[in-house]
Amino acid sequence: MNRFALWIVLCFALLFVLPASPALAQGGEAVTFTPFTDHNMGFSGLAPDGWTRVGAGTYRRNAQDAVLLLQQFLPGLSRDFVAIVLAQQAGASALPEDSTTLETTALTWELYRLNVEASQVGPLVMDMALASIDNPLGTYVVAMLTPEAERDTLFEEIFGPVLEAFDPFSLNWGREDGPAPLEAGFQPAQLRPEVLGVRPHDPTAYTQGLLLHNGSLYESAGLYGESTLREVNPETGEVIRSVPVDEAYFAEGLALVDDRLIQLTWKEGTAFVYDLNTFEQVGSYTYEGEGWGLCYDGQYLYMSDGSAFITLRDPQTFEVIDRGLVTYQGQSVNGLNELECIGDYLYANIYPLDYIVQIDKTNGNVVALINAADLLDAEQQAALQSGEVLNGIVYLPESETFLLTGKHWPSMFEVRFVEGEPAE
C-alpha cells in the first residue's frame, strides 16, 4: 500500500475512534476558516473554526461528525481516483451514479451522497464534493460525515461554506478592498522556458534562495552543516564571498530589504539578518512554521512555507500582515517554494516538480504555468540525487529574461518564457 492510500485509511479510522470534541456554535452564525498545513502529508487547506483537528485534514465536532478536507498533491493520482478510494474506505463500493452540481464563486462542484455503516456509531451519511477541474498541480476532494438527523443543518452551516472558502477569493492578499476579481473564463497561459544561454553554477550549492542586486547574485544554500550565504558572479558562477550558517540551521529563502539580507531557515523558526556590505549578522527574526521562499516587492515581504499559502510580512518587523491562498483555476497550488517578486507578479518554484507558476499578487491566481522539464537533458537528470530539483529564479531587467537553476545544479540557464509545452 502506498503512502497516500495508507493516509486515507488512517483518516477514516480516525473518524470513528477518537473522542468527542467541543461543539460548533449553531444558530446561523457565520463559519470562518483558518489555513493549515501538514508538511508530512504534503497537504494544505482550510479548517472550520470551532472544530477540533484530529488528523491530516480531518476535523471533528463530536463523536459522529467529521469534515475531511483534501488537496491531493501526488502526480498521477486523479481527483476521481482519490474520491473512489475515500468512498471504498468508508464502506461504499463506488461513487453513486447520481450527483448534484453546485456552482460557487469560481468552482463547479459535483456533490455525491453515500450511506455508510460505521462500526461504532451506526449508519451515517457521507457528503462528498469534487472540484470539476483537474490540473497538473493538485485537486480538491471535500467529504463530510454526519448523523442523518443533523445532515441538513451541518450541510448548510459547514459543507456549503467550506466549498465557498475553497474558491480563489477567500483571502485578501494585503488589500483593504479584498482580492481583485478573476476575469470570467480566464485560462492561465501554458509556457515553457526558451534557453538563450548557459552559465556555470557552483554544484556544491544546494540552492534555496537567489536574488540579483547591483550586478551580483546573492544566494542562500541549504542543508544542515553545509548552509551558506554567498555573493556570486552571475556571468561566471564564481563565489566572490561566502559565510557559513551554524550547522544547527538549514538555510532557505533569501530577500533584500534596503541594505539588509534576510535569510530564512527551514524548521528552526529563525530568519537571520545580515548587513549587505559586510555579511555580518546584525539581527534575527522569529516566526512560526516552516520557512521556504522569500522575496520583497518594496512594500511587503512574501514568504512561502511549502503549502499553498503565501504569508505577507512587514519588511521592518517581520510581523504577519496577511495570508494569501494561491490557486490555479480555483484549485490551490501546494509546494510553493523559492520566490521572485517582479512587478505585479510573484514567480514560484513548485517543489518537487519541474513547474514554475506566475502568480497575480492582487488575488493569488496563477496566470501562467511554466513547464521547465526540458532544462536538463536525460544524462544531467540521471546524475542528480533525489530532491536536487529546479530551484532558483532571478529576473534580469535589462534583457527582460530570467536565470533558472537548481539544487546542486552545475549550470544556470538564461531563458525567456514562451508559449507551448516542452518537446516530448
Structure at a glance:
11% of the residues lie in helices and 45% in strands.
Write a structural description:
With 424 residues, this protein is mainly beta. It has two domains: 3-165, Jelly Rolls; 192-419, Methylamine Dehydrogenase, Chain H, CATH 2.130.10. It is built from four helices and 31 strands. A hairpin with a 5-residue loop joins β27 (355-360) and β28. The longest helix is centred in the N-terminal third of the chain and has 15 residues, at 3-17. The chain starts with a helix and ends in a 5-residue tail after the last strand. Residues 1-29 have low confidence and may be disordered.
Write the topology of this structure:
Blueprint: H1 3-17, E1 33-38, E2 43-48, E3 52-55, E4 58-60, E5 66-72, H2 79-89, E6 100-103, E7 108-118, E8 122-131, E9 139-146, H3 151-165, E10 189-200, E11 207-213, E12 216-221, E13 228-232, E14 239-244, E15 251-257, E16 260-265, E17 270-275, E18 281-286, E19 294-296, E20 301-304, E21 309-313, E22 320-325, E23 327-328, E24 331-332, E25 336-342, E26 345-350, E27 355-360, E28 366-371, H4 378-382, E29 390-396, E30 401-406, E31 411-419
Parallel strand pairs: 10-28
Antiparallel strand pairs: 1-2, 3-4, 4-5, 5-9, 6-7, 7-8, 8-9, 10-31, 11-12, 12-13, 13-14, 15-16, 16-17, 17-18, 19-20, 20-21, 21-22, 23-24, 25-26, 26-27, 27-28, 29-30, 30-31
